User: Fold this.
Amino acid sequence: KYVGRPIPRFEDDVILSGRAQYVDDIVLPGMLYAGFVRSPYAHARVLRVDLSDAAKQKGVVAVFGPEEMGFAPGGKVRYQGEAVAMVVAGDRYLLYDALEKVVVDYEPLPAVLDVFEALRPGAPLVDENLGTNIAHEEVYEGGDVDSAMREAEVKIEERLTIQRVVPAAMEPRGVVAAYDGDMLTIWSSTQVPFDIRKEVAKALDIPLVKVRAVQPFVGGAFGSKLIVYPEEIWVSKAAYLLKRPVKWVATRSEDFKTTTHGRALILDYRVGATRDGRILAIEGTVYADAGAYYWGEGLADTAARMLPGPYDIRNGRVKAVAVLTNKTPLSAYRGAGRPEATFFIERIMDRLADELGIDRVEIRERNLIRQLPYTNVFGITYDTGDYLTTFKQGLERLGYSQLKQWAEEELKRGRVVGVGFSVYVEITTFGYETAILRAERDGTFTLYTALTPHGQGLATALAQIVAEELDVPIESVKVVWGDTALISDGIGTMGSRSITAGGSAAILAARRLKEELLKAARKVLGCDPEYSGGKFSCGGKSATVKDVVRAVYRGEAEAQLTVEAIYHADSTFPFGVHLAVVELDPETGFVKPMLYKSYDDVGVVVNPLLASGQITGGALQGIAQALYEEVVYDESGNLITSNLAFYYVPTAAEAPKYEVYFAERPHPSRHLTGTKGIGEAATIASTPAVVSAVEDALRRIKPGVRIEKTPVTPEDVWR
Ligand code: MCN
Ligand code: MO
Assistant:
């Protein structure tokens, strides 16, 4: 049995020893370096780009202006850092010297940086062609909100704000592209090699088979590398035109400005409830500060549609609005809409509990969904689970009441500590995924996956799944990923879909391969064999996988030794309870997370070590959302928090102690793996849990305080 075991990652030795190859480790003969001239203005017309001096600089091989590459579309830049020109040179030093020589004349335009400013009539337009700053708008509605609101005995309304953050993967983005006159190969720090291949082929008008995209080792992404970025197209085009390898790797500050930001949603809500705390209706608007370009991510939409969370709310009307501003474009960041939805609904639950004088646990018990599957008021069907039971068992296991008690006693000893929890349901997995499995001559197996792991340890988890399905030692399974030359198509690692979608594809492939081998074994043995432990036996005879594979190569039997499986994995819904304990220093206002505990029902857990790694890392990101990180622009749209010296990414020093639990009686998904995703759960659950804990602590010194926004900074604590 391999599934369910905490097997250490095979990837670790490679990565931790420094032998793993990342994009910037790739050095090709004759390689050139690309760099970009980027707008210092958040909003400006580009009057003139003069590349003549730069072109004459030592080492410069080519210069590209707006016309050739489509920089600054519409003749203007819309955020600080947007590219206006590209220079390609023989080495990095000469490149940076040459970039200095590019002359650009700008006519600065007033920048719009706030969502509500952007919505005001007469506000500067980020995109004149649109005629408005609203890039997207959609109303989600179900039930009868107006009558439910009329019936409601209590009503609350409020604005809740969740700040903009930088995904800040350890490895910045980077691309190497090489064209040998026949084949264009692109290596990128990405989550989506298959999309890169498609988009580059389209942009350069060359057939898909002449483009190969490779995802080498990737040092984190958190959803920020799941779009095809313009640099990936531009660098590919430069390599194609110059027929020489070209590399670009972002500096940290370049990465902060050009890699998509996350969160930045605001909810204006009104909730109607009965006096005993049953929510009857919810209405409101979710605004996304979408930044300078809207690429259809629908983050406000996901937040709107998941706003009811795990609660039975039958009447709802929520509008999702994506608003353009002169900032770095917004896109997916770990959780992408669900952390915001969960923060919103959990804050609402706490507020309603306070308003009605009902305990925070009690009010949730009264509203939790009783019967699964359940279709929420906006049409999303939650698949499996027993929310009420899991919630009660979770709080028990996490020791919630004991910790509350302890916090009271600590106060007597002069320590201000707070305890908070959150409940979540989230949506994981979508779309198709592909797996190819091959039986090798020595009886081992190679699994090719279209997944694109970048820190999750999926090579280990997939090997567990395949070894279990084939009933062979895990050492005899090798997992290969990240190359469009090896597998035709797939979506990749995002949306906590990998183990469920890609793992199920692997199981399907393993079953098909077993059938094929069985067919050949029947021929080899001359009887109807049973398969177990890598061996076929019947009538007192037996043959190993190796024997059978060799028989096929010798022409003594026929079978497919390589099989492909494409698996469709529609969404599945994890549920859980997370708890946070924080200590507040009333003097400095600094909040220290002390303890973080989680209890999740994610169906089958393939590898508890990997899964709990996802919880601890994910929670720290959500803790940072609650307490530390925030993108700050000045009034002209200059990014103030432009690198890691000005932007507070927590380190191990800020990390709390963790206790990670998985539900004793989990509710499997209906997929072949039985799993639900875990990759984003803790980022989703931690922010509201921590905010609730901070509020709890703060109320011990300032009764009645209410937190309506993140992050909660020391300034907020003093206020
Ligand atoms: N797992 C498990 N049992 C389950 C579910 C998952 O053992 N029931 C394990 C899997 O084997 C895998 C890991 O947990 O090793 C995460 O699996 P899954 O939930 O399927 O999520 P994905 O592999 O699709 O990962 C994507 C997810 C997302 S969307 C973001 S954002 C994120 C995250 O993973 N970005 C990460 N975790 C990250 N971790 C690292 N180190 N770096 C990132 O950029
Ligand atoms: Mo993600």
